[in-house]
Design brief:
Layout: H1 10-16, E1 27-29, E2 36-38, E3 47-48, E4 51-52, H2 57-63
Antiparallel strand pairs: 1-2, 3-4
């Protein structure tokens, strides 16, 4: 059976529980399209910081035909 060797102080206990009160994910709004996406990720339409960095799948499929 596991038995603690030393008592954890209230300060250390609070540090251990510090992640219990984290807020939700950081959300950003793309200035070009107005889409909502996670910060530091590209938007669903392929924009990052107002510039197109990736062609979305729907555009890529129609241009090849």
């Amino acid at each position: 059976m596991a038995v603690q060797q030393n008592k954890k102080s209230p300060s250390k206990r609070g540090m251990h529980r510090s992640h219990d009160f984290l807020k939700g994910p950081a959300i950003a709004v793309e200035p070009t399209t107005g889409e909502v996406h996670l910060r530091h990720h590209i938007s669903p339409s392929g924009f990052y910081k107002g510039k197109r960095v990736v062609q979305p799948e729907a555009v890529r499929d129609t241009s090849s035909e």
